[in-house]
Amino acid sequence: MSLDPDVRIDSRCVRLSAVREAPASYSHDFEQARIEPGHAWCLCNTSNPQRLVIRRKSHAGTAAAFFLAGWPEGGESHHIDCPFFKEAEDESGKSSESKSCFEESVDGTFRITPQFSVSLKVDTVVRKKDPIESTPRPSETTRGATLLAMLQYLWSETGLHRWRAGWNRDWGRVRYEIMSKAEDGQIGRRPLADVLYIPPRYTPVGAEKNKAEFAARQEPLFVSARQFLEAQSRIAAGKAASAVRETLFIIAPLRGLKESQFDSYQIQLGHIAQPVYCKAPLMQRLQRRFGRVLNTLSAEHGHVIGLFHVEGTPRGHLQLLDAGFMRVSSRFIPVDSSYEETVADALVTANRDFSKPVRIEIGADSLDGKVLADFILYDTASRRCYMEVYGVQGREEYEARKREKQHIYRQNGVEIWEWDLTRTREMPALLPRVERTAS
Ligand SMILES: [Zn+2]
Prior knowledge:
Layout: E1 6-9, E2 12-15, H1 16-21, H2 27-35, E3 40-42, E4 50-56, E5 66-70, H3 96-101, E6 102-104, E7 110-112, E8 119-123, E9 130-131, H4 147-157, E10 162-163, H5 171-182, E11 185-187, E12 190-191, H6 192-195, E13 196-197, H7 207-236, E14 242-260, E15 264-269, E16 276-279, H8 280-299, E17 303-312, E18 318-328, H9 338-349, E19 354-355, E20 375-377, E21 385-390, H10 396-412, E22 415-420
The structure holds zinc ion (ZN).
Organism: Paraburkholderia humisilvae
Protein name: DUF1173 domain-containing protein
InterPro entries: DUF1173
């Protein structure tokens, strides 16, 4: 179970759950604490209080509504079960390059600099499709975030790569976590929540309402697609015109792919009835890039989450512009192979505390030379057990990397659990859980 730590706001000590349930009751304390010392305290580790950011809800209307967020740095100093806990920098998949694509402010807001355009513009001057974004371009060494990087970032920022004993997680929970995070984000110059759709978990009761809500989200795509094409033909005819074509990002499970007519594919998304169409050349590109992940859908009954960037067609269809895919376990822990899925499922079944470091993929990112474990188990005697699944690939480069990792771990004297597929197909027993004493 997650800890419900005491927090201190100004001079008031109270349970975090109480603040979350009725933030208005603490408005005065929040106001005071915002002036001096400028933050609140998390008391999860009584001997070592941690600073918390006091944030004001942006759409709160007239009544000020405050809430607490983790401090950008030092998340690892919180108790491991504290909701504000974050893995230490050297155990996270972030790098200097990923940080330039995902800029985080002290107040808990963040901005994604994408590699792609969030909307398209035509006007008389440019006479062709042109990115509308005039966002500051990423620095020369940065190419901007890909869709996969964006998905991985949102996943790890919302703690979906983590598990604690007693937790449960379904699609509804995943959606809730990412939607809440999106409230604090921008992509280029747009609020992320305005351009992101995550379908609610399908239930027969909610189906009609969800369908209507999704239809409302799509309407601007179709309307702007018609205006965009009209403007294009006006410009082609030598007349003045301008239009902006809206796009939408959808995060959903991938259910299936099938060939359809007119040299295109139909993509079936989880919790959404209507398909997304994908042109053959784009599908070929996605197959080249994500083939291994996409194949797990049919071959290994794997679970795949996609970030689908779509536009509307004038006839009311959703058309894929690009996508990023990530394999996950049945409880939505990111995994790189069926063996990692076996480990993730075994850890969840055994009710263990662990995280799966997610390497945020940006270009030829080197992770600043960090070594990332496949899993980190927190509830063993040493409180840090690095878990490695060594695959069956015998490539020299892979073997060298494996030896390097083993060497670094041995040098640092850390507790290691290894599953070497070249030796056995059977998962070795997990290290025993050792109960923590309350701190
Ligand atoms: Zn804490």
